Amino acid sequence: MSKDKQFRLPEYQQYLVPKGPNSHGSMILVRATIPSSEVEPAHCGDGVEAQAIRIHLANDSLVVYNIYKPPPKRLEADALLTQATQELVLIAGDFNAHHPTINPTTTLNQNGHYLMELLTDFPEITLINTGEPTHILGGTLDLTFISTEFVPVAQWEVDDELTSDHFAKTTPLRMELLPPLPRPPPRWNYKKANWKLYQDELQKWYSINEPAEDIDQLNQDFTDAIQHAAEGAIPKTNPTNKHHKDYWFYNDEVREQNHRINTFRRHLRQYPSLRE
């Protein structure tokens, strides 16, 4: 959709990427009663169009991706699927990726092989297509991925009535069936708190600080004062003594090097070296 053609649907929040020289255009619509916001999408390859929004749930959030990979472009989905290891995601779009896992009658192409190999490295995300064609000529071009924990409460369907050359796809998520998120471990050991010291620290802050006129700054100052008082008067908890199996040498630097090695291995699978 171009900038000079405005589309409005009452009671929906519109997130639009206009059609342009380097974009086919895309749109995500969210019911206005559902809190949502636009986020910066992960890089999916040069010329691959990606749009992302965050839907704010009661106890968490869900990042929804809208993807279009033109046939001649090369997909780079490492960063995209890595996001599924950090938060809940739903990824849908036209990937132009062909693999027998997606559709047994299709012809394998490089993007399909790369995408299926990549999925084995990310058990946190699952392809939920049923194998039913998503194109009127019989191809399965449109794929839907969701966080694996959503699989038991998700349903994937093709809508035969909403169509152009592609059929519309629906993915209901029965959110009420999801188990409640576990409570985070307590940060402070209140049983050992020195409440007299805590009160004295807050009283000291109040006596020497001039309240800010800006309400946001006042809120931030007061929050910092509470944090400072708690750190001096309430000991921290130690919710677990569990170590990494290689805790005696494992640290952030080792973790980063492991990440780089795994990323390089995935890169080699996508772009095999010509050397023996």
From TrEMBL:
Keyword Transmembrane helix applies: no
Alphabetical list of SUPFAM superfamilies matching this protein: DNase I-like
Any matching Pfam family: Exo_endo_phos_2
UniProt name for this protein: RNA-directed DNA polymerase from mobile element jockey-like 24
One MF annotation (Gene Ontology) recorded for this entry: RNA-directed DNA polymerase activity
InterPro entries for this protein: Endo/exonu/phosph_ase_sf, Endo/exonuclease/phosphatase
Transmembrane residue ranges: none
Keywords: Nucleotidyltransferase, RNA-directed DNA polymerase, Transferase
Claim: Ribonucleoprotein is one of the keywords in the record: no
Residue intervals of the Endonuclease/exonuclease/phosphatase domain: 63-168
Coiled coil: none
